[in-house]
Amino acid sequence: ELVRQGEALKRTEQMVDKMDQDLKTSQRHINSIKSVWGGLVNYFKAKPPESKPEQNGTPEYYANSRLKEAMMSSKEQESKYQESHPNLRKLDNSGFKADLVSSVQRDSYPKNQHLRAYHQKIDKNLDEMSSGLSRLKNLALGLQTEIDEQDDMLDRLTKKVETLDVNIKSTDKKVRQL
């Protein structure tokens, strides 16, 4: 949703830039109509550079890399989570992994078999929680970065719109005087 909003902001900013360019062109035409001297000044004055047209009418917008990485990592972790979740997994292959882990870490758990199994289950649950929290943290950091970038874009857009509003009022006043 944030990426879609970023795309909309980028399109809006480009439309405001286009409107500003069109307004400058109209002001040049008003100066030409207003007097002969204004027409001569506009003739010798350099023309404003024209912006490049957008490809297929859709501007390019790229979400920040931190958000993209967090989303990709989240999708990878989600598939791993679904494979290991008791209600979502199709095949139970955790026995092999548990035997391998228990043989490697047998010394770190208590001697009592039931207590050892309980500790291993707790460790496994803590690992899953840690993985989930890591995923949430990465997503939150990516979202924060994207929101900060869009906030800066909104500030720029607000300034441009305010300037454009003043220029439109000025141009409207000049047209009414003609």
From TrEMBL:
One of its GO terms (cellular component) is presynapse. It is a peripheral membrane protein. The keyword Chloroplast does not apply. Residues 1-33, 116-178 form the T-SNARE coiled-coil homology domain. Its main location: membrane. Residues 71-93 are annotated as: Disordered. Residues 140-174 form a coiled coil. The keyword Nucleotide-binding does not apply. SUPFAM superfamilies: SNARE fusion complex. Keywords: Coiled coil. One of its GO terms (molecular function) is syntaxin binding. It comes from the Eukaryota. GO terms for biological process: synaptic vesicle fusion to presynaptic active zone membrane; synaptic vesicle priming. It is found in: Cell projection, Cilium membrane; Cytoplasmic vesicle, Autophagosome membrane. Forms a SNARE complex, composed of VAMP8, SNAP29 and STX17, involved in fusion of autophagosome with lysosome. Interacts with multiple syntaxins including STX6. Interacts with EIPR1. Interacts with STX17; this interaction is increased in the absence of TMEM39A. Belongs to the SNAP-25 family. SNAREs, soluble N-ethylmaleimide-sensitive factor-attachment protein receptors, are essential proteins for fusion of cellular membranes. SNAREs localized on opposing membranes assemble to form a trans-SNARE complex, an extended, parallel four alpha-helical bundle that drives membrane fusion. SNAP29 is a SNARE involved in autophagy through the direct control of autophagosome membrane fusion with the lysososome membrane. Also plays a role in ciliogenesis by regulating membrane fusions. This is Synaptosomal-associated protein 29.
